[in-house]
Please model this.
Amino acid sequence: MLTLLRFARFYAEIKANGSCRSLKPRLIQRLYRTLRALPVREDHSSSTAFILTLESWLAHGEFDKVLAASADETDLRIQDVKFRAQHYRTHGIPDISAMGFELRGKTCSIPFSKLDVLPSGTCHLCCAVWQRQPVGNIFRQSINDVWNSSEAREIREGVNDGTFRYCGKQLCALIAARTLPVHEQTQVLSVGPKHFNLSYDRSCNLSCPSCRSEKIMEAGAKRLFLEKMTNDKILPLLKTGESVHITGSGDPFASYAFRHLLQSLNSKDYPALRIRLMTNGLLLTEAEWEKFSHLHGMIAAVNVSVDAVKPETYAIVRRGGDLNTLIPNLEFIGRLRTARAIDRYLLAFVVQTANFREMPDFIQLARRVGADQVHFQRLVDWNSMNPDDFHSASIQTREHPEHAEFMDTIRRPEFSDPFVVHEFAELLEGD
Ligand SMILES: C[S@@+](CC[C@H](N)C(=O)[O-])C[C@H]1O[C@@H](n2cnc3c(N)ncnc32)[C@H](O)[C@@H]1O
Ligand code: SF4
Model:
């Protein structure tokens, strides 16, 4: 009876925590102390019950079971318990008082210098996929109210105290790759953001199934609203900016708002600003590049998402696109890179069941077109696919029937070359 009561109390606390942040260290420590003295209670009836199960496995030293568990990885409590399982397996079990502070002494400059602007003006201090807590709305509040909001301060406090409680510890590449620097910083900032990730317009010429279920092209009043916000809110902000990433939401060359933004930027009014373009590349022809000649010299990087080497795979994973249209554009961007018209040229690939066998050839393609690097990304659940389709596409999960073949692929020697960056280091740990 007492055991059931304890489980019920923990259940309520885990549920009340919400999924946008990891559990507080004090709760993590109490869970560990209590659950290791109780028999494991396996319960899959809800996400909260399953988190309690994962904490219970962790307390009993069943780290592999925690890591192999199939669970909603957008939930930061789940990312955190998996991160601790990985950490304890590699470094041993720490003092209970240190649990929840595994990243103490590390820092990250991103929430202190960067603003991500999403559709409707909602802002985050890092990528919203793994830092899900919004800090305000730039279309409704002043920049300082957003930049130093109570949510922003709490996120920064989480970096300073080593809990990184608002950071997705599995999905953030810096945490996953263990490359966070050591440093101390404060929460309230008198200097505004210098780095921007503009993701407030989802308009795109494609409808990749990983990203969306149907094509999105903002029109009418919404299009006018986004253009007005670009003029009133975004362009003034960028005057003191050092870098702007366009875009994580749609396509810079398909969106009217982003095209308008690109037309409006120039090196005289935005002297320090460097532009990083992320695009599907289909519209980035030589003629298009010339339309933006006023930006030449300001483009720090062009990142093209390709995801396939065979036209028939491309047509599936990049729905609405044709690889034969893209290849000349990739070659053209390669020539821009050779001529030093851009500083960096990256090709990206979201790894899925449909395309993982093409990863080695993709590395060859990237070398042939003159890219600096390829980036193999993890498929994340963006709610664009139905759950069954997402599970069958998630080749990175250990229980996937073709996972072993995927692992053999990423163990090939070319995947250790610095030319290749991938987000699967954690799967290779212990190899
Ligand atoms: C949403 S796109 C926007 C920029 C541009 N349209 C493009 O495709 O590169 C930004 C990046 O997210 C990637 N992406 C799309 N769906 C994803 C998913 N479910 N998980 C992880 N990354 C995804 C894209 O491949 C691309 O590299
Ligand atoms: S091209 Fe980019 S924004 Fe467009 S649907 Fe595909 S991933 Fe999404």
About this structure: The first strand starts at residue 114 and ends at 117. The pocket of iron/sulfur cluster (ligand 2) is lined by residues 204, 206-208, 211-212, 250-251, 280, 305 (CB under 6 Å). The mean pLDDT is 93. The chain has 18 helices and ten strands.
